[in-house]
Design goal:
Monomer. This protein has 725 residues and is α+β, with helices and mostly antiparallel strands. It contains 15 helices and 34 strands. A hairpin with a 2-residue loop joins strand 8 and strand 9.
């Protein structure tokens, strides 16, 4: 018979080792006893698992605790518990305390030592089968907890029912709950080291969660490894055309009543639209589970769970397939830089700061009122790196865009002097974060064709250099300097642009120091910054012309491309995450013209290797005219290294220039205009250079320091592309 001290501890949910007391155990005299803690049960009987024959009735002592000595049995055996509930109903159940430890010692040792970068195979909730018993194996890392129970709709959210087994070598708690199944709600009830009961915690490794404001995790199937799209490796190469359409899934196109679209609704329309627009990749802002809509997903808590806003995870699998069926690559925003402090989340998860840095000088972001992961802790690195691998391997996405990398790289990021802690060398770099990012990129790089893209806004060296060369190992880096400089230039009245000419040329000084992507992202059209159209100076005609000229400049400039949704048709107001894009604007031909331009720019970019093959190489670019500040004209040649060329010319004033002499490279007898952003087809004045088969003949007339030239008409506020005939 169980002693009163053990019984008191079990009933209070404070027993140090419930597996040593509950279930089937032999006493000092070799007699077998069976014990069960089943609050709410009126009667419990022991049955033989095979024959279902009654063996003995268990006696209820108090508080739902039942026990009985087992007659005529001397060895362990498989059994079931027949329960009649006081509230009505009855059933026959396998006993969770009759099952051996779930996780192998080597598995846990690898996790504790930082060698398990697929921790989601061990931790979280997994449906498993033992003989004829199906159930769910739950496992959670909470090394400083005194007790952890899994609670859910399968046990009436009662923490006394399923206290878990602690595997001391890893700080992991585990239990197999028979008869739990897919779709069950659950959380973890944790008692901290001081004996205090914490708020219920969602599972850090949950693969599905409730829709906010509810916060429970949901038992979900582990996605099967997804075959790599055949085109992925080639499509993501440096020499390939990469043009990315960035989307906030909740507001691209909402339902008729303003509700979130489902994954299937998005799959029906979004991939086909992106492909029709000529983009090569679709990038989704964070779709991992997050509690606050207004964070746009960047304050995520569900690093392994597609958001419930768009329906069950299975819908996301169908969406990924629809993207690939259109020949597109899919990139996901991934956020390892910070996490929110919601009580059900990672903050002080087991009563201590195991996921975040303990000192607020390291572990708190002032800018976002969020916490910072402890990048130096083994289990946290596995959690983060494992998440990156999970989305690529298990969901088949093509790559990750990593948010706020600069905030991870520097310990003094957005902190005044005296309010940050130097690294062990006395410097400002976060050596642990740097190491984690390199580790993540190395593992991503092992997956054929997968890529990572860094949003990094400083001059930190080697962001897109390989780790073996001392770099961070990203495949591409957002060129934030280019974006800021060029948008400042475009905001100037054209009459003043001569004084800011270098803002458009400065980026070429460092354009090939990284594998750059040119981003016009969501960050440029929020928080009072206005839309791209509203940034442009002048009257309405000039605003549209300026924007078209700028897009032409961007697509002709070295670097991969990224454009945020709505800007492809010149959205007038800045983006609102709570509203659908204003698709009705396309009834206005000026907006439709910008959309047609972006579609054609993408086609031109893909069709002409000179515009993309050497995007990241100095040999792919050559100035024709970089210093004509007086007329605000820029001209350059793009090359692919095999002799193919494209000339790009920009006139950033509203002054048309007829008969303009443009120096051209040797080896070509005539050039033709391939695209003109001033075409009437795009909403322009239709000044240009015709499409005659003979094109524009090369003349032995020097210009721009070259011995040959062509004579062109330069439309107002326009970018032109010329290709050899």
């Amino acid at each position: 018979m169980l002693n009163e001290a053990d019984l008191d501890a079990l009933l209070a949910g404070r027993h140090a080792d419930p597996f040593a007391r509950l279930g089937l155990h032999a006493d000092d005299n070799g007699r077998l006893w069976v014990r069960a803690l089943l609050p709410g049960a009126a009667e419990v009987a022991l049955l033989d698992a095979g024959s279902k024959k009654h063996i003995v009735d268990l006696e209820q002592r108090r508080g739902g605790f039942f026990e009985a000595m087992v007659p005529r049995r001397k060895h362990r055996f498989d059994y079931r518990l027949a329960v009649r509930w006081a509230g009505g109903g009855e059933g026959v159940y396998a006993d969770p305390y009759n099952f051996y430890p779930q996780l192998a010692d080597e598995e846990l040792k690898a996790f504790a030592e930082g060698r398990n970068f697929r921790p989601w195979l061990s931790l979280g909730a997994h449906v498993v089968q033992y003989g004829d018993v199906s159930g769910v194996r739950f496992a959670v890392w909470a090394p400083n907890a005194r007790r952890v129970s899994v609670v859910g709709n399968f046990n009436n959210w009662d923490g006394r029912r399923h206290p878990m087994r602690l595997r001391h070598q890893a700080g992991v708690w585990e239990i197999f709950v028979p008869h739990a199944t897919l779709g069950d709600l659950y959380k973890f009830e944790i008692v901290n080291g001081n004996g205090a009961l914490l708020p219920l915690k969602a599972d850090p490794y949950a693969r599905r969660a409730q829709l906010r404001p509810e916060t429970a995790s949901i038992v979900a199937a582990l996605p099967e490894p997804t075959p790599l799209p055949r085109q992925r490796e080639r499509a993501n190469r440096r020499e390939s055309a990469i043009s990315v359409y960035e989307v906030h899934a909740a507001s691209w196109r909402r339902g008729v009543s303003g509700e979130f679209p489902t994954w299937d609704e998005l799959a029906e329309h979004l991939p086909a639209y992106v492909a029709d627009m000529g983009f090569t990749h679709l990038q989704l802002m964070p779709i991992s589970e997050h509690p606050f809509d207004g964070s746009w997903g960047y304050q995520t808590l569900g690093m392994y769970a597609p958001s419930a806003r768009f329906g069950p995870p299975e819908g996301f699998a169908r969406f990924v397939k629809a993207v690939h069926d259109q020949g597109l690559g899919l990139l996901l925003d991934w956020v390892p830089a910070h996490f929110p402090m919601d009580a059900h989340g990672l903050a002080e998860f087991d009563g201590t700061r195991i996921y975040e840095y303990a000192d607020p000088k390291e572990g708190f972001h002032r800018d976002w009122n969020t916490l910072i992961y402890n990048f130096g802790r083994t289990e946290v690195r596995e959690f983060l790196v494992g998440s990156a691998i999970y989305w690529i391997e298990r969901w088949g996405v093509d790559g990750l865009r990593v948010d706020a990398v600069a905030s991870m790289l520097y310990r003094d990021y957005s902190r005044p002097a005296g309010e940050w802690i130097p690294n062990i060398r006395g410097g400002r770099e976060n050596l642990e974060a740097i190491s984690m990012l390199r580790e993540m990129n190395e593992h991503v790089g092992e997956i054929e064709g997968a890529i990572s893209v860094a949003e990094e806004s400083t001059s930190f060296p080697g962001v897109s250099a390989p780790t073996y060369a001392g770099g961070l190992g990203f495949h591409y880096k957002w060129n934030m300097g280019w974006m800021n400089d060029t948008l400042r230039y475009m905001a100037e009245d054209p009459i003043n642009r001569r004084w800011h000419h270098d803002k458009m040329t400065f980026g070429l000084i460092y354009a090939f120091s990284e594998n750059f992507m040119l981003p016009i992202s969501h960050d440029e059209v929020v928080h009072g910054k206005g839309s791209m159209l509203s940034k442009m100076p002048g009257d309405d005609w000039q605003k549209f012309a300026n924007l078209r000229a700028y897009y032409g400049f961007m697509w002709g400039h070295p670097g991969k491309k990224l454009l945020f949704m709505g800007q492809e048709f010149a959205q007038r107001q800045e983006w609102d995450h709570a509203e659908s894009l204003p698709w009705g604007l396309l009834e206005d031909d000026r907006h439709a013209g910008v959309q047609r331009l972006v579609r054609d720019l993408n086609k031109l970019y893909r069709d002409h290797t000179a515009l993309h093959r050497l995007d990241c190489e100095q040999g792919g670019f050559e100035w024709i005219s970089a210093h004509d500040a007086e007329h605000s004209i820029y001209a350059w040649v793009r090359r692919d290294g095999t002799g193919r060329m494209v000339i790009v010319v920009c006139n950033m004033t509203p002054v048309p220039r007829e008969g303009y002499s443009l120096g051209v490279p040797d080896g070509v007898t005539a050039w033709r205009e391939a695209l003109n952003t001033d075409s009437a087809y795009y909403g322009g004045s239709n000044m240009g250079n015709g499409v005659a088969a003979a094109g524009l003949p090369v003349q032995a007339q020097p210009a721009h320091g070259r011995r040959l030239s062509i004579t062109i008409n330069l439309p107002p506020l326009a970018t032109l592309f010329f290709v050899p005939i």
